[in-house]
């Protein structure tokens, strides 16, 4: 294998005697590595500059190769000091073998994560190769920002119901005899509703944890998707919505659907609640047989939920299934559609959002039938 002009022998050592670097390509073409790889020779001139390094630094490889390391990769620390002059990799302590990962700045102030490996001809000999790994910080920043937003959202969502629960229970304990039965019932019903809100938030957080870690379990059973939608509609009608606001259309014959009934109920609940709360006019639910989204299966089931409201702005379409998206009307945690997408994809299905014929939002998810092998 060769990485930027350095060959390794059968025991993973440089043919001149130096150990192979932990930053090397590991048998792969350096151009295939997701991280930037820059290699400088014993004179400090760049002899390797892979495609990821070009992308991260915005410097063409042809321009970097042959240049001095300090000129090709002019890194500074967060205090503005020139990094290669500060660390002096070729003239520093001969016992050093690496530089740990740290945040450094490229020209223009762009931040990158940098590690360096010193490859020496002998344990205390001069540096024969300097191998630098560059990693874009944007992905890490997005993750850190997402975690911070999640913590802030959870703290905000928990504060209101817990304040209510604490206030009402403390009041009842201190002044029980002063309240009428109707007043006590009202306060206890409020506490009960707020406890449900906290329970729902905790369930959403657990779902997100399982989705992000790939541990969301799907327990497949036969599901009558039409009956499941009808139950949700009946619940809304019982809660005061007009029966005429809902239009359910089922195209027969539907293939037998095997899915997790609880999780499909969760998907339907989120999509219908979104249409009722944020949409206007008639909420239409269309259930149709369709091509399976999974390779090797012929049939699937598609469910489309649409309304006649203002819809979702075109510029927001690509953010609908991200965490904390709430649209123009705030309310809820903004986690529901993120969870819906995770559940649908855990079933091997797909979900899309678009504009309905009536001008409102249209969500369409498609599930493979996923029938057990003994039914095939």
Span of the ends, CA to CA: 49 Å
Largest sheet: 5 strands, antiparallel
The count of DSSP E runs of length 2 or more, i.e. the number of strands, is 14
* Number of helical stretches of at least 4 residues: 9
The helix fraction, in percent, is 25-40%
| β-strand amount | 15-25%
Q: What is the gyration radius calculated from CA atoms?
A: 30 Å
Query: How would you sum up the global shape?
Result: elongated
Question: In terms of per-residue confidence, which ranges show pLDDT below 50 for 5 or more consecutive residues?
Answer: 1-26
Q: For the residues shown, what is the average pLDDT? A: 84
Helix-and-strand structural type: alpha+beta
SSE sequence, one letter per element: EEEEHHHHEEEHHEHEEHEEHEE
Structure explained in plain terms:
With 376 residues, the chain is α+β, with helices and mostly antiparallel strands. 36% of the residues lie in helices and 22% in strands. The protein has helices at 51-57, 61-64, 69-72, 83-87, 138-175, 181-213, 225-238, 261-278, 336-346, and strands at 2-3, 6-7, 36-40, 46-49, 98-105, 111-120, 127-136, 221-223, 246-250, 257-259, 283-291, 299-306, 350-355, 361-368. The strands form four sheets. The protein has a five-stranded antiparallel beta sheet with strand order 4-3-7-6-5. A hairpin with a 7-residue loop joins strand 11 and strand 12 (299-306). The chain starts with a strand and ends in an 8-residue tail after the last strand.
């Amino acid at each position: 294998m060769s990485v930027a002009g350095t060959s390794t022998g059968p025991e993973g050592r440089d043919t001149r005697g130096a150990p192979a670097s932990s930053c090397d390509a590991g048998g792969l073409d350096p151009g295939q590595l997701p991280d930037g790889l820059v290699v400088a020779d014993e004179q400090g001139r760049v002899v390797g500059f892979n495609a990821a390094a070009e992308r991260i630094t915005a410097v063409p490889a042809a321009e970097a190769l042959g240049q001095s390391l300090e000129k090709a990769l002019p890194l500074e620390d967060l205090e503005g000091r020139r990094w290669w002059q500060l660390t002096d990799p070729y003239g520093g302590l001969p016992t050093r073998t690496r530089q740990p990962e740290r945040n450094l700045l490229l020209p223009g102030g762009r931040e990158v994560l940098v590690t360096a490996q010193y490859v020496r001809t002998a344990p205390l000999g001069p540096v024969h190769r300097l191998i630098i790994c560059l990693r874009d910080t944007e992905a890490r920043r997005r993750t850190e920002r997402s975690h911070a937003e999640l913590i802030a959202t959870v703290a905000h969502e928990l504060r209101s119901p817990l304040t209510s629960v604490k206030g009402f229970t403390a009041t009842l304990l201190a002044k029980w005899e002063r309240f009428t039965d109707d007043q006590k019932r009202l306060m206890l019903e409020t506490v009960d509703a707020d406890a449900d809100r906290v329970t729902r938030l905790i369930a959403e957080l657990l779902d997100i944890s399982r989705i992000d870690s790939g541990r969301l379990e799907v327990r497949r059973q036969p599901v009558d998707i039409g009956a499941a939608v009808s139950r949700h509609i009946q619940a809304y009608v019982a809660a005061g919505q007009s029966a005429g606001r809902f239009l359910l259309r089922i195209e027969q014959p539907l293939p037998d659907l095997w899915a997790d009934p609880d999780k499909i109920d969760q998907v339907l609940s989120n999509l219908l609640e979104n249409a009722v709360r944020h949409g206007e006019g008639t909420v239409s639910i269309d259930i149709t047989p369709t091509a399976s989204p999974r390779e090797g299966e012929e049939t699937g089931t598609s469910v489309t939920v649409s309304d006649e409201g203002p819809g979702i702005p075109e510029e927001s379409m690509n953010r609908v299934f991200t965490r904390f998206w709430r649209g123009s009307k705030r309310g809820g945690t903004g986690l529901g559609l993120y969870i819906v997408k995770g559940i649908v994809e855990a079933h091997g299905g797909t979900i899309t959002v678009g504009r309905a014929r009536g001008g409102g939002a249209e969500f369409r998810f498609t599930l493979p039938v996923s029938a057990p092998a003994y039914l095939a």
